Amino acid sequence: MKISFDRNFDWHLFSLWAILVIFGIFAIITASAAKIGNDIVLKNYYWKQIIWFFISVIVFYLVLKIPLSVIDMLILPLYIFTVILLVIVLFMPAVNNAHSWLFLGGMRFQPSELAKMVMILLVSKLISKDHISELKMLYKALIGVIIPVTLILLEPDFGTTIIFWGSLVFMLMQAGFPLCYLVLLISPIIGVVFSFNWILFVIASLILIYYYYRERLSWVLIAFSSILNTFVFFLTPVLWNSLKSYQQNRIITFFNPIHDPLGAGYQVIQAKIAIGSGQVFGKGFLQGSQKNMNFLPEHHTDFIFSVIGEEFGFIGAFLLLLIFYLFFNRIIYLIKVVSKKEYKIAIAGIFSYLLLQTFINIGMNLGVLPTTGVPLPFISYGGSNLLINSFAVAMVLKYSVYKEL
Fold first, then answer.
1. How far apart are CA 398 and CA 405, in angstroms?
2. What percent of the chain has pLDDT over 70?
């Protein structure tokens, strides 16, 4: 198949990426500035983000120019290198109770961000072979995921772990893995969710068994799933009691932020106040009181969406969501039209991990999801996050050249 880069290059997606990054830099400027009276105190986060933006542009250009055959050769060495970084980072100083950062001079880098992309590229290659059985597909997928996930859990970084497993599910679905088997894989979650009520657990288990029967799963698999879910049901209270008090408090506060308004629930409460106070048109550029008085923690990173809601109101937040919608909708379109199975799976993985980050971040800003420290893609301050997310978009654009004509 003859490829014309100029004709097939997806300028639509590239433009949406550029708009999101520019929006993010502007949001970081207002989030890192505090207006007190007539004085404006501006922190240096914005120019650091601009530096990372230029680094991202260079990486973006290199990815588009390097032949795919070379990138394919680099996937496995890059995976091994990333695993080594994830081991090294465990011995680095803790930041916010987690060993997640490598310190490079005056900058920090988060290896778990790189691990997301490397995992997607490796797994998409492993499970894209023709005539591969479901068991072999699952086995190969787990090989690519289990090592980085285990190391990231040790940091600990539960939010990134969720994104890993979510991306894996999307990739398996795109590869043609039967939905009933995916349900089988994630079914132990009912043992966690309903561990507080055995009646609900029994009802949910019976519904699952009926679904498996309808899908004609073997009774061996049905029995194994039921035993595993029951084991998780009894294990969950034991694990709960083994958690530290601050970890239990965070989970309880997820369901009821008022439970600890000055502790674990403080961020969520202040974020909701900030968004609500913005009303329709917002308080205006640099006028956010929650941000200026520093009531809203991490307002240039995890809770930057709340700053946008406070200063630019419903209109500003809606505009950002609209851009994200167009961005993700375009990636969905490319999944459909790209011709090669491996590239379809890789794009599906990239789509899912960016979508999950967006969903989790905005959800925790609105108080409907727990605070996990997941940044908002392209918007939150963070060099490694911007770099790897831009690398991901560059890979989508590289694959998009291979459209079905």
1. 16
2. 88
